[in-house]
Each structure stands twice: as structure tokens, then as C-alpha cells.
Amino acid sequence: MKLALKLLLAACSFVALQPAQAADYTLSINTALTTDDPLYKGLEAFRDAVAERSEGAIEVKLFPNSQLGPDEDVLEQGRAGAPVAVVVDGGRLAVYQEEFGVLGAPYLASGYEGIRKVVTSPLFEEWVGKLRDSAGLQILSFNWWQGERQLWTNEPVTEPADLEGSRMRTPGAPVWIETITAMGATPTPMPYAEVYSALQQGVIDSVEAQLPAGYGSKLYEVTKHLTKTGHINLITGLVTSAAWFDSLPAELQTILREEALKAGDTASYGTRDALAEIEEQLKANGMEVAEIDVTPFREATAGVYDKLGYGDLREELQAIASE
Questions:
Q1: Which end of the chain is least crowded, N or C, by CB within 10 Å?
Q2: CA dihedral of 70, 74, 77, 83, whole degrees rounded to 10
Q3: Which GO terms describe its cellular component (predicted)?
Q4: What's the N-to-C CA distance of the chain in angstroms?
Q5: What is the pLDDT of residue 287?
């Protein structure tokens, strides 16, 4: 009897000392944002929910501060079949499927609720299929709202004329470049990770960014004025490799898409609830925060839609957003 008990205890000890079983699949997610950004909290929720619901079959790894490289590079890795994903805006996806560019067009919608209706609509799901076919990229969900983009400058701004000659960082997608040009500045594309040092060294004069990102990267240390133009309502998506996604069993594909949608809501509502506090923190750090009449900016950028061929699409999407 004693011998049997010793053998049983030894067996239990052996099992307890074994390493945890490795996940069947691993997904590495890249984001330019910092770990204290509300959107990053949503990514953590996604990681944990996927691990639990898949019973450890999928391990999600998070890489903040663009640790895996610029978003464009990670997208190309995904197209090649790598098990990576990136939080990315529609402007960058427009390189592969032009409809996505309209999501970054100026003054399309305000706040989260309206734009969420757009990116969960049957029309948007048609775009998801087109992107798969044309670029080999799979959208898990596109309801990751980062807030409205504002102007971070060292001189006060009240109208487009105040931006004349200002070299303003913006992503390199056509819709962003045309919007910043129409607003009166000189668009200067560069990776977001380089913005702080570029402002510090005078390579650029200004930047347009949403409050959580700007606060997280300490733009208040290298700019003096925040002007609330709200010119772009930044909705982003979690995008991965279609080839990698297709390699998963159907039930794991379902888990990823469903949990991405839930986590996107977590991130977006967290962003919404944090904005007022972030603004107060910016003021406490010495920034001048200005509420202005955005009508001149709205009028100046109205032609961007037609210039990029989005005129008809704007009407359709605004109708969906207002339902």
C-alpha cells in the first residue's frame, strides 16, 4: 500500500513538472501605440479571451511601439503568409483595395457609434472579401476606434491659412496626404515611431494625431498647442495574413473574428472614456488646448472625396452611419 502511494505521488510530481503544452498556433500583433493606450488594453483583452476560448490552441503575442517594424512592412509579411497581424487604418489598406481609403477621409463621421455601424455593415463585409482576394489580407475586425485626429503644433492655429509652410507628419496613404494638403500644411510621411525625434530636431513642424497616441508618445514635450479640429475620425482594424488564417480550423477562425469584434469594442469605449482625462493631463503638462470653429477646415477638405473618387461612397456611408 505504501509503495503504491509513493508511486502515485511520484507520478503526480512528474506531471506537475512538465512544461505547459505549446500552443498549436501563434499570432504576433504589431501596433505603433504604447502600452498605456486604451486601445492596447483592448489588445490585451483579445489576447486573453482567445487563449481562454481556444483552450490554449492560439497564443497571441503583443508588440507595442512598432517593435516588429512599420505597419506597411508587417502588412507585407502578412501577405507573404507570416503569422502576424497589425492594427492599421483604412488609408494604408487602400493601397490594396481602394474603398478602404474613404474610412480615413475628412469629417466622414464623428464619435464611435456611427462609424461602428459602417465597419460592421454588409457593405463593409464585401470589402473584407475583396481585400482577401486582391491582397491576401484578412480583417479580423475593424472596430478599433482611436479617437479623432487633432493638430499638435508649436504655433496657434485657428484656420487653414495658419498651417501654410508647416511640415506636418502624416501617414503616407493618399487620403491622408490629400487631407493635410487641403488643410493648408505640407504633408510629410514618416513612421509614427520617428515623430518625437523629428519634432525635436526640427525635421517636421507639426503632427496630426489622436489624443491617446499623442499623450502616450509625450508629444506635449515637443509641441505647445493642441487644436481640436477632429478632421479624421480614426477607425482602425486588426488585419492578419489570409493564408495563415485559412490554415486554422474553422472553429478557431470563428473565435478570432468574434473575439476581435468584442475586444474592439472594449478598446473603443475605453478610448472614449479616457479622452477627457487625457486632455486634462495635456493641460497639466503645459499644452494650450483650443476649441475652434472647424467650418473652415471642413470646407477646405470637402473636395478630397471627389478628388479620390469617393464622392458617391461618402453619401452611402454617411447614410449607414446615421441609421
A1: N
A2: 150
A3: outer membrane-bounded periplasmic space
A4: 74
A5: 97
Q: Which residue segment(s) compose the domain that 294 sits in?
A: 22-321
Positive or negative, the CA dihedral 29, 138, 314, 166 is: positive
Contact between 259 and 49 (Cβ < 8 Å): yes
C-alpha cell at 43: 489588445
Q: How far apart are CA 115 and CA 272, in angstroms?
A: 13
Count of positions (residues) in the chain? 323
pLDDT tens per residue, range 241-293: 999 999 999 999 999 999 999 999 999 999 999 999 999 999 999 999 999 99
- Rounded Cα distance between 41 and 125, Å, is 26
Q: CA–CA separation, 218 vs 231, rounded Å?
A: 21
Q: What is the CATH number of the domain that holds 290?
A: 3.40.190.170
Number of folded domains in the chain?
A: 1
Residue 187 belongs to a domain: yes
Q: What is the CB-side half-sphere exposure of residue 95 using CA atoms within 13 A?
A: 15
Alpha helices (H) in the chain, listed in sequence order: 2-17, 38-53, 71-79, 90-93, 112-119, 122-135, 174-182, 195-200, 211-216, 242-246, 250-284, 295-301, 304-307, 311-321
